[in-house]
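> @MW can you paste both from yesterday?
MW: sure, first one:
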Amino acid sequence: MKKRVNWIFILLMVVAISACKKKNEKPNDPLPDTEIPGAVKTKHGEVVGTATQKIIGAAGGEVTVPNTTVKLVIPAGAIDGDVNFSVQEVSRTLADGAVGTTYRFLPENVTFKQDVQITMPYYSSSNMIPSRLRLAYQDKNGYWHKAKDAIVDYYKETVTVKTRHFSDWVAISDIYIKNTGKENLEKGESTELQVCFMPTKESPDNDDLLAPTVKIEDVKVKEWRFWGTSTLDRGKLVGGAAASNTYVAPAAAPKSLMRIYVEAVLFPLEPGKTETVLRFSDIVVLSEEYCIYQIGNSSSWAGDEKVDVWSGGGMYVNFYGSSGGARVHFEAPDENTGLKVFGEKVLITFNSGSQYFSSTYTACNSTEPLYEKGDIVVIGTKDGLVSGDAKGNLRPKTAGTAYCFGNAIPFSAKFRYRKK
């Protein structure tokens, strides 16, 4: 009897242990994101275009993105076996201080035995100080970190770091000019500009968390001024030698869109250094007719060359740009105020050089029309002018094919034209 009880007890223990093991093999519920007070957090960017991929093994290798200076170098011995690495452009979500295109490096779960090297480009004409350039990356919870050690190549206009972390990366300048108001101004409107500094927050790991930007001290700013020798009326700067200055647009609208270039001259930031000049160009004074657009991470405008409007009813308008032969086409059955969803009668196309993008596309070897997600919104009509905006996806036509189109690319635009 005693032996029988012992066997029953052992059997029950085995069943209990087995049940516990099966329960513990289930993945744990994800822990809620830990909020870090005083740290910069944004959403992750959306994919733009097609990723560049390459399988690299223990012998090492490189991944380079075509037509860019983006490079990933995996040294020999950094990994044990073959890994499919990819570099993907994504939309930029870090607004303050970013001075380049954002790229996503994958896969994130690779364990490196030694540092790998990432090289990223920066925009040389943008709002930055070369000596303050760094690379920043975004962790899985959306927080941004500044990589402490960076090598800047001023000739190639790149920033390089060594890391063991894969995520979204972008070049940053921790001192820059910030526009606190509107980027696109009507005649007579104004906006406040500030020279800002992006501090860091101490982090347990080797890289510092980015903290929200703050204005630098007024005494560090020597003057504000317009850049260039244009004879056009560019408006005025009001505020003198201080960290903040107000830009006021001209009283009359320009004949075509006018970009305003403003400089802030800073006293030497370190002993023995020379004055530093920040140049800011993210202000545009609107003309009567215009189209300002963004496709992927590239922004520009059209309509400064010519605007063609069909007079046969409905919306059928082409904005031509003087730069790169760009053309933006909007088409809808009417010009009434309201939402017009992409479809059979609602269309946006974009041309630049030999590239053609469209909201209406076809699958390879098929003539059946397909429609991307998006819409055109007519905001209103006043004094014979139709104003609106658009947002959605366009697809690039694959060169040399009859029907093939590539992956969807985000597109947005603001426009205004005179009715015929």
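MW: second:
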Amino acid sequence: MLYISQPSLSYQIQVIEEEIRFKIFDRTQKSISLTPAGKMFVENVRKIHSLYKEAVEEGQNYSEKFNFIHTKKENNKFKKYYFPFNLHYCTNN
């Protein structure tokens, strides 16, 4: 169950279709189906969602290990000054 009204869902789909500039769904009086472009779009969005969940999980796992190591070995004052440098180094290399 989505817990969203049909008009709200239709509006959100319309907004997305305007943003991506192609139709996701073929709509008729009796049915609705994915367009060929819509099928490709949904497949790619599923891949993106899966990668997003994987990235969050890996980040959380890394963060837990990183925080555990620094909490056990170093005092808070050192972490305060070391961590920003370490983060900057990791993002630039």
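> thanks! Confidence is low (pLDDT under 50) at residues 78-93.
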